[in-house]
Design brief:
This protein is an alpha+beta fold. Helices cover about 40% and strands about 15% of the residues.
Amino acid sequence: MQKPSPTLLAFGDIAYQTFSFPHDHMPTLHSTIARCARAAAALAGVVLLAGCDKINFWRMDGHQSTIVVEGPVAREQLDLFIITCWVSLVIFIVVGAVLAYATFKFRARSADDEHAEPPPQGHGNPLIELSLIVASVLALVVIAIPTMKGIWNTYDVPEAERKDAYEVTATGYQWWFKFEYKSETAMTDAKGGKTPLITANELVIPAGRAVRIHLRSFDVIHSFWVPKLGGKVDMIPNRANILYLKADKPGYFWGQCAEYCGDSHAVMRFRVIALDKKEFAEWLEQQAQLGRTVTPSIASTPAPRGQFAALRQFKENEAGITIAYDTEPLKAWRTKQDPEKNEDPALIAQGREVFKKNSCANCHTIRGHDAGGVTAPDLTHFGSRTTLAGGLLENDATQLRRWIHDPLAVKPGNKMHFGVGAMAGYVKKNDSGKGYTRNITLTADDEVALVAYLHSLK
């Protein structure tokens, strides 16, 4: 006989064969032991699998946990989940108890019982049947009332907080998020021009204050989800949806598109940063300024100090977030708001020229730097963000250069590589409409200079 493979089911089969012996219709001690051994083996396998490779089966406090919540909307949804679990547990216990009672009470006790004619069948007791119907309806009502309340609160701010709610418009693109603060203005030039404040992939909100997010989509259906603050609401083209969020206290929260939207749906991420009133006001003031300009000294323009080392090879799907950043992300975000020390003005100026030469301004906006594209993320204060590539990578020099070097290797199908509409990206369509040819080629010097320039934009 062929030896079974060492899988979870195979362990159960081995246990069954070990403890089972030929028997008649009557259950025996051996068959009972076999069934218990099989169940125990399955349970042990699940526990072992849960503990493999540093996976803690019992932890539920990850970045996108819906169990450890930090806002009233998410807390209300968690309460609904707990209520549903308790109702389900009561039903399970009652049904299981009745099943166990019937199994032991009316089991066959002899071979004659096994082959006896079944007793006359009829309908159950009307009182019992009506009681079950009433109990089922009550269970549904217990679940339905908080469910309806939770759905109502998910889609808009409660009446008591609506007047003071902070308003933001979030727009989903393939595969990133644009955040527009329509009540805030930002400078467009040194002459005093104004425009609504726009950021990308990092939504900064005031802590302790209700936030009404107007959800839009530029292309396909997306879904906006910040698990620790609230549930999912779809972003549908040509349809206005609203989402209510509120953070109990300052914090850094992970968000995710939760509706399949194409090649890079799984890596369409964003962050929500909640700040206290004073820090939020300071952030708004800083974001309203033009893109920071670092100008080399007129007296002398030294050669760039950048080290044009070869970019290391990244493994496929290699993580782009370091452990140090992941430990204290809010602290990392605060650190990013200040200009980096030991900047190289000549290298930054060289990077700005690379940005202009490769027509990056056709898609990106950098206010005050003659870049006014609208189809890609606003980069005016890109250096102050902790993430890039739609929240996928940490915004450090290594990961930014990785993204600039080959965006397609990081995010399949992205528009930075293929372009948007008639505007080419790293490649452009051939005149025949079939295939692509290279449009942007960056040297190692270009990549390093471009990293320095983008990181100077605080």
